[in-house]
Write a structure and sequence with these properties.
alpha/beta, 7-stranded parallel beta sheet, 7 strands
Amino acid sequence: NYARAVTTGCRQAGTIAMVGDGAAPEKYKLGLEAIARLEGRGIPIFKPRARLTDLSARIAAAEQSGTTAWGIDIDGAGHRCMERKAQATEFYPVSTLKKLKQQSTLKFLIKGILSVEDAVKAVEAGADGLVISNHGGRIANSHPAGIELLPMIARQLKGQLPLLVDGGFRSAEDLFKALALGADAILIGRPIMIAAVGGGADAVQLYLENLKQELIQLCRRTATRSIDQLTPDNLIKT
C-alpha cells in the first residue's frame, strides 16, 4: 500500500517516485509491482548485494516492470541491518559497476556520491545520473550534507549527466537553493512517507503540488522566469 501510494501520488503530481530495496529479502518486489501497475512510472534503487546473482535478478525484474531506469545506493554497503548472509552488501570497484551497467539497456543511476572523486568514478563506471547523498545522515553525523557537496560536483560535471541530490529537503526554498547550486532534480523522503501513510496517494500529490506552487512564487519574487535560469546569484536575491 505504501509503495502504491508513493508511486501513484508522484505520478498524479507530474513527477516520479523512487522505490527501495531493504533488509527484507522480498521487499524490492513490492516496489516493482507498484511501478508495473503504473506502466513503468517509477525508479527502483537496489542495495549493492555481496552476491551479484541477487542483484542481477533484481535488474532483470526491473526490466520486466517497465521502468526506464534503475539505481544502486553504493552508500548502502556495510549497514548493520544487512549483515545477514542472505542480505549481505559489498563495496564495489568501478569494474563491477561497469559490468552491472552492461547487463541492461535501462538508464543507470548511482546513489551515494559524497565527493568529486566519487562522482568522477561513477561517470567512469557508466552512470547515466548521479544522486549526491549521505543516506539521510545515517552514515555519520560529521559527513557533509549533499547540498554542501553539490556546487563542487556541479562545477566538475554539470551538463554531462543529470545531478540529483537528497538530504533533508522539505520546503520550496530548499528546492530553490539546490536548483540554483546545480541540481537537476531533488529527492524528498520523509515528508513523502508521512503524506503516504497519513493520506495515501492524494496526500502525496497535495504535498508535491503545494511545493510546486511555492517554488513558482519564489521564482517570481526573484524575477526568475524558469528554474533553468537559476544560478548561485539568485540566492543573493532571496
